[in-house]
């Protein structure tokens, strides 16, 4: 037991408690004082979800050893309004819809509060600068900045308190600014995400992950880890009582690696222990014997004969191939005056939601195996887990905790199974909270794609044929790959009416981190290629990029290459609006830089810079800093 | 994850030195602690266990600053935010507010110290190039028996390489002393992958004094970071400019030389392109900050291709 006794004041209350010497202020607030409005998004000072006031100065509590707060006065999100009315900043966030998933919001409210305390007259550029240490992934920041400006004006008396109230709905929710019902719980820090939840007797889980991209597991020895005092259980694939395997389409992924590992970071064993440190120590006592296998990291190499096979059921490494054919492509190319071929590549992308994955599992009084997690697909998870743990569906329950950002990245049941197994094995509640690093290493990413585009056009800009071949890196497991390939094929040619098309999308197994769902679900990759290609073709034909799109766009009643009849098509209006609001200078996209007159005009922003708070004093002519 | 057996918070220098002497091997001194916590994570140092951490932030002798005889003595506990918010420091160290505003973010600047940044000796440290430009010296204390002994040396000699300094076991950095450059204009240029909270790929600093008319370079201080194992002072460029009439041609000529000094292990071409523009921009911005007329800008996109 540590001899460190912290005496401090938190939200106007005196606190005297023993603390561990290694605890961060963040841990002390969350674990010891149960003030979970202060979140952990990265643990490295990058995201700002943990911002708190220490002696009046805003700091990141993940970068502050708790011992540093000895004798200090701490103010957390819970202390801003106490049990009273929300503060003007909180109300303004509620009003503008600044809180979406809500996970960054306590930190964002703290940063906004700090900015206005430091300079009640801060202008928008200074507000942006002062909030620079806090990240949001949902809003694009506009609503947050709008909220801070409203709060500033109300606090300064330049606007009445009514500015914080909801706009009149005007009898309809459509076209009117309506406040979110859940915003007060988010702006006040009261909403509990899975990682904020605790239960009596709760165990903490840590996961041993594969250091290899492709290796056979010869043996796993957990005896030493199990013998460590404080360890309640170790689970591996051997603990799965039913039919192992999950996935959004093909159920190719075991709860934990079975017989072999297929990517770096794959779960191999998990420990549940009385506390996090014990669980971490136990991981180092697990002995896994691997035999490395040849691995494949490029989807085109994986398609070649003789490539390493990732899954025995798919010897060709193909997760899914979606072919679509319409018209006669050869005839279409033969009619073309110009044929343009290009290859486009997009990269792997991490969702980077502010809430790292977290879950809490327990077996309730009626033997119902219950998993609480920010799953984006609880019903499907419930059905899969019932099979995996061999229980009837009425003995498996999934509770969806608030999702602190998902964007598709929380559709996969990559950790809920381990939690269920540990809860079943111990009879105790078990919680697992990912670190940011774990979240980035192990969870699904946006599919990297390589798209070979071939387009035939007449000199007047009409497209006569398209051949579109997309090879996507599905990574080690299927997850949502099949659906992503299907949607990429459906949306491949964009909103253009093309008589002859040949489309092939392939999702391929490799030993990379699995790819899965990510906002647009395959459309982004296809659209990047299509729209880039349209611009290149416009340039080659000397056409205005808007014009070539208007010549080829679908119109009301068009039939897509998947035989869907479109009653109304809005691409024409979209193009008009984009052309007008961008101040586009008509002409072929061959004019560059200084030749153009439509750059740097109204509504454009110069490259990022800092120093909005520097001013020159009117009186002395000297520099002042707000 | 960072764990330790003991976390000490001494309040006097002699107490801190005694704790350091008594601490088991592998113990660490911390000031702001903003670098050690992210370091002890997966992908960097991983799980790290330290026997003891000795936190210097409550040591009275290390806080505050004094100005005398043309030098500013910055206690080792002076944090970055002070260079922005303290009027006097801004006036005497004219490049520091600009360095500070690009350093991490408002919240980390409340914790992170300039001395800690120098001691970490990262090739990309934002704080070291300005200290070099300010002819910085570092003051160090140690125990000889029960007596506190002190030494000091130029920061240029103290920083020896990535994460390597002249600091010896048992020693604690107590202060940095810098030239007071009141009346100079300051500038700091930085590029990284985002605006806040980013480690510099390249940074450049300038402090410039002109004659009253703003036509002659009376004194010029230039330094670069992120271009090799240690930040560098550009003394030859300074000599080339000092005493000369300020002109666009001269500035352009001077900024063409430093790119050859880029010795980083990666992205050399990129850094060379940046350095040229940065030296020119730093001189321009420092002139503007000094209130001198800036010679008509040239289109840098044109001149630096």
Describe this structure in words.
The complex is a heterodimer of chains A (626) and B (305). By secondary structure, chain A is α+β, with helices and mostly antiparallel strands. Chain A is 26% helix and 22% strand. Chain A contains 18 helices and 24 strands. In chain A, a hairpin with a 5-residue loop joins strand 14 and strand 15. Chain A starts with a strand and ends with a strand. The mean pLDDT of chain A is 95. Chain B is an alpha+beta fold. In chain B, strands 4-5-10-6-7 form a five-stranded antiparallel sheet. Chain B has a four-stranded antiparallel sheet with strand order 11-12-13-14. In chain B, helix 11 runs antiparallel to helix 12. In chain B, 51% of the residues are buried. At the A-B interface, strand 4, helix 4 and helix 14 of A face strand 1, helix 3, helix 5 and helix 6 of B.
Briefly, what is this?
The complex is a heterodimer of chains A (626) and B (305). Helix content of chain A is 26%, strand content 22%.
